[in-house]
Amino acid sequence: MLRNRQSRALRIATIMAALTCSVAAQADPVEDFYRGKTIQIIISTGSGTGHDMGVRLVGKHMEKHIPGRPTTIVRSMPGGGHVLAANYVYANAPKDGTTIGSILPAFILHQVIDGRGVQYKAEDFPWIGSSDVDNMNFYLWHTAAIKTIEDAKAKVGVMGATGAGSYTALFPTLLNNLLGTKFRIVPGYRTTGEIHIAMERGEVQGRAGNFNSSLKSANPDWLRDKKIDIILQIGATRDPEFPDVPLMTELAQTPEQKRVLELFSGEIAMGRAFLATPGIPADRLTALRKAFEETMRDPAYIAEAKSIDLLVRPLGHEKLAEIARTILTTPPDLVEIGRKAKFGDKPPQ
Question: Residue 349 and residue 276: Cα distance in Å, rounded?
């Protein structure tokens, strides 16, 4: 009898041990980590912009696909032409997977061409994916005398700008130095939203470096009521919705000009990209990439994006890394040409 009881106890202990091992085997450390956590998404633009709207929408739907279902919050960190946000995500943000960045890719070429204020290494950022690849534009208020790039060579156009490394300052400067336009850049605006308000008030006449989809989602009345004139777009090919607006690269008058304009247009192919912090644990990075991919296929996300005129043209992390690597390995001679195009004969201070 005693032996039977001992044998039965041993069998029960064996079964319980097997069950315990099975439960342990099924445990998901990524899910355990993210359960109850909050992920902050750092954006390099101001709140209320089209970029901000797009990022918030991605975060809202991505929560459902991350193991543990953490919540997401968006934190706006404009300044320094996207350098401030890049510095923070690289050097100061937690490296545990609770911080994601959505930083306009101007910060990559800024590291190569300029370098002022850079405390990051763009090559170290792990990419997650891009929610849409979209052209950028260059527009002026409808009351301005400038309607074409040729007008801008004969008349002064006053352009609002944020940081020195931002697209708002970069594109007018390039056109002045390469093509002889007469844009006057007024810096110091904290966000692009402030530039838009200044345009409506008549303080400045235009802005460069907005995504087409962001313009459509945040300022649809500007297009509907013809409040702005778009004089060029930046990208690899013309946007089908703006077929009559020339590409910046099409304005080149010499092979060298075309080469420089292609360099500064290349990063636009990255679209609204998302990245993680250097040092993030590999399993959490894999989970975030998978969650992002699933979000891009989520019918609820696609439907809501369509309802606010946001594009869903995603790009994978491998392609983003490839584009970034191409920019970061730009040949020295082209870097020097690009530096002169951006600064003229004056080196960056």
Answer: 30
Taking alpha carbons only, the member of 260, 233, 270, 239 closest to residue 122 is 270
Task: Summarize pLDDT for 155-177 with one digit per residue, the tens.
Answer: 999 999 997 778 999 999 999 99
Give the pTM.
0.80
Distance CA(181)–CA(136), nearest Å, equals 19
The DSSP-derived string for 36-86 is T-EEEEEESS-TTSHHHHHHHHHHHHHGGGSTT--EEEEEE---GGGHHHH
Q: Are strands 136-141 and 127-130 parallel, antiparallel or unpaired?
A: unpaired
- Measured in degrees and rounded to the nearest 5, phi and psi for residue 264 equal -80, -10
Please write down the long-range contacts of 259-262, taking CB distance under 8 Å and 24 or more positions apart. Answer: 259/334, 259/337, 260/174, 260/178, 260/334, 260/337, 260/338, 260/341, 261/174, 261/178
Strands 273-276 and 127-130: antiparallel
> What percentage of the chain exceeds 90 in pLDDT?
76
Distance CA 189, CA 78 (A): 10
Alpha-carbon distances, residue 128 vs 71, 100, 238, 294 (angstroms): 18, 9, 26, 12
Domains parsed from the chain with CATH numbers = 35-133+270-334 (3.40.190.150), 136-267 (3.40.190.10)
What's the Rg (C-alpha) of the chain? 24
Between β-strands 127-130 and 99-102, what pairing exists: parallel, antiparallel or unpaired? Answer: unpaired
Between 21 and 126, where is the model more confident?
126
User: Chain centroid to CA 142: how far?
Assistant: 28
Query: CA 206 from chain center: how many Å?
Result: 22
Give the whole-angstrom CA distance, residue 260 versus residue 219: 31
CA–CA separation, 305 and 101 (whole Å)? 20
Find, among 218, 288, 301, the residue nearest to 41 by Cα: 288
Are 72 and 38 in contact, with CB atoms under 8 Å apart? Answer: yes
